[in-house]
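Subject: DUF427 domain-containing protein structure
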Amino acid sequence: MKAVWNGVVVAESDDTVVVEGNHYFPESALHRDYFTFSNHKTTCAWKGQASYLSLLVNGEMNTDAAWFYADPKPEAEEIKGRVAFWKGVKVTP
């Protein structure tokens, strides 16, 4: 699977986990040069607290475009160490 935004592959892996229709990529699959820190956090009732990352590609910022659960609840343990995308990031085979 590939995660593409602004014409650039920002993550790529054959090992994704699908939860609620979202592909969670291993952290090692991220092309880190395109990711920046975000203070944004949300809470999911069954997964726990999500932290976010922003994308900076070709001079354009996509704020909070990726999220991860650093310490997911036991029911969501399969996504620990994985990152998912939204906000216009296309995930394709």
